[in-house]
Amino acid sequence: MKVSQLIGERTKERPADCTAPSHTLMMRGGYLCSVASGIWSQTSALRRVTRKIEDILRGEMEAIGGQEVQLPVVMPAALWQESGRYESIGAEMARFSDRNGTPMVLGMTHEEAAVHLVREYGRRAERYPFMIYQIQTKFRDEARPRAGLIRVREFTMKDAYSFHTTQADLEDYYSECHRAYERIFAKVGIPEVVSVLSDSGMMGGAVSHEFMLLTDIGEDSIAVCADCGFHANTEVLRRDDGICPVCGKQSITVKRGIEVGNIFQLGTKYTRAMHMTYRAQNGEERHPLMGCYGIGVGRLAAAVCEVRHDDRGLVWPMRIAPWQVHLCAVRADDAAVHSTADALYKQLSSCGIEVLYDDRDVRAGVMFAEADLMGVPLRVVISPRNLENGMAELCFRDSGEVRMVRTEALCTQISLLIRSQSSES
Ligand SMILES: [Zn+2]
């Protein structure tokens, strides 16, 4: 991709109403465009990031036996009346009537549609356990959207639903999914995410965990024990006297966090309400047990930005970076620079390396400031001075390290770096 053709302006000015660094830097870097409160368009740069996150999510869900499906965005109200949630959920669910006057809803979560899809398949006991997942757009009419992609109204989510015949089997799978989530957060570049016990809120299940990135801009409160490492949502702590329920020491402090994922043991709440049954060996009709597992894609991208940035801009981890290399042709009006950078762009691209090529005739200062802002992990600078010696600068966005590399060795060196940085954690 050439910067001269890239849709999404980079700006120096901090946009109004930005309270979170991820919001400010994504706006300034040309990643995001606000359409309405809590509703966003992603430019190509951000879409490349979210697509990579989605691929990681797919890989981890397939690895634990998930089958990707696609459930509808628009559903008849009748489906939500089956579970009772058409009445119990309030104004956050968008409702409308179709042209025939049939009441409809916009999906804000998909337990009902998931049960609907597998209700017939799940009639036979020998087919359990199984898990379906999707990566789908949802709409939840949040009262207070805020902080860019952290709290939005329209969002893309990976949601998964597992079905079991015994509580023990549900619990085993739940643990397996918990481990898959730890791998996901490590792969996208935030291994510091912690899981906390939570009340399961409107999902109505018994056991659930929230995965939290501890950061000051978060809107959830998490009780953390400095002694034994116990974490919990403050809502589940009954006592407010700072005593840890695990080790009994008075070392609980409350921190802020962003919820980047959640998992629930739903039990038979939905299968019972929606009359999903299988025939047990003794001939009895039973309701299967359900688990559900969610991760918001955009919020996850924003959470990574909350941790991985500095005062100059974003610092993407290699695995989910929009591009792997930012190629800067300094003095693009210089014929040698121009032809070397063009040739390098073609060479790197043909090696399968993702390159953002700044081919514009702008000052080096502007070019570098924008490259810092966008946060691509590796930068290659072709300039008249270095080119005289057959060299180019290879710069690392995270450490600031600069190496001089012979231009003909660049492709090999960069390939090695990408391979090692993509396999970390
Ligand atoms: Zn403790």
State the gist of this model:
Helices cover 31% and strands 28% of the residues. It has 425 residues and is α+β, with helices and mostly antiparallel strands. The strands form six sheets. Strands 3, 7, 8, 9, 10, 11, 12, 13 and 16 form a nine-stranded mixed beta sheet that branches. It has a five-stranded mixed beta sheet with strand order 20-19-21-22-23, sandwiched between helices.
Tell me about this structure.
- With about 425 residues, the protein is of the alpha+beta class.
- It folds into two domains: about 5-310, Bira Bifunctional Protein, Domain 2 (BirA Bifunctional Protein, domain 2, 2-Layer Sandwich); about 325-425, Anticodon-binding domain (Rossmann fold, 3-Layer(aba) Sandwich), CATH 3.40.50.
- The protein has twelve helices and 23 strands.
- It has helices at about 20-30, 45-65, 75-85, 85-90, 110-120, 165-190, 270-275, 295-305, 335-350, 365-375, 385, 410-425, and strands spanning about 30-35, 40, 65-70, 75, 95, 105, 130-140, 155-165, 195, 210-215, 220-225, 230-235, 250-265, 280, 285, 290-295, 310, 315, 325-330, 355-360, 380, 390-395, 400-405.
- The strands form six sheets. Strands 3, 7, 8, 9, 10, 11, 12, 13 and 16 form a nine-stranded mixed sheet that branches.
- Strand 22 and strand 23 (about 400-405) form a beta hairpin.
- Helix 1 crosses helix 8, helix 2 (about 45-65) runs antiparallel to helix 6 and helix 2 (about 45-65) crosses helix 8 (about 295-305).
- The radius of gyration is 25 Å and the shape is elongated.
- The two termini are about 30 Å apart.
- Mean pLDDT is about 90; it is low at about 200-205.
- Zinc ion binds near residues 227, 228, 230 and 244.
